[in-house]
């Protein structure tokens, strides 16, 4: 499946956004023009957490203060398979969920 973009996260792993997932993401409010913000969230996140049920899934969050407090954080969910990351979804939210990133 063709990629919309491929980016390297802070740990040096590749993360891809496929056309299929981009189509899914655009169904969320305010996401039609958010490609650059998705990239920015992965590169310069405010917080990163992992799914408490699947540690292969990471949650990237970046706070954007120019948005309503009800949608202050951009959430990007990434699953890592064989050290390659794939964006599952992305949307704006008012809170950060998941377990704290292990250092």
Structure described in brief:
The protein has 103 residues and is of the alpha+beta class.
What does this structure look like?
- The protein is α+β, with helices and mostly antiparallel strands and 103 residues long.
- It has one domain (3-98).
- It is built from two helices and seven strands; from the N terminus they run ββααβββββ.
- A seven-stranded mixed beta sheet has the order 1-2-6-5-4-3-7.
- The longest helix is centred in the middle third of the chain and has 9 residues, at 35-43.
- The protein is globular and about 35 Å long.
- The model has no long low-confidence stretch (mean pLDDT 89).
* Number of DSSP helical runs: 2
Give the strand content: over 45%
What helical percentage do the residues reach?
10-25%
Low-confidence stretches: none
> How would you state the average pLDDT, rounded?
89
What radius of gyration results from the CA coordinates? Answer: 13 Å
Number of domains: 1
Looking across the biggest beta sheet, what order are the strands in? 1-2-6-5-4-3-7
Structural class: alpha+beta
């Amino acid at each position: 499946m063709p990629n919309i973009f491929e980016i390297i996260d802070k740990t040096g792993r590749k993360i891809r956004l496929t056309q299929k997932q981009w189509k899914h993401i655009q169904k969320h409010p305010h996401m039609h023009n958010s490609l650059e913000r998705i990239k920015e969230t992965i590169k310069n996140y405010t917080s990163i957490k992992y799914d408490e049920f699947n540690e292969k899934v990471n949650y990237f969050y970046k706070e954007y203060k120019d948005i309503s407090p009800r949608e202050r954080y951009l959430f990007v969910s990434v699953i890592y398979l064989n050290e390659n990351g794939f964006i599952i979804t992305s949307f704006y939210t008012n809170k950060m969920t998941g377990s704290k990133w292990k250092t």
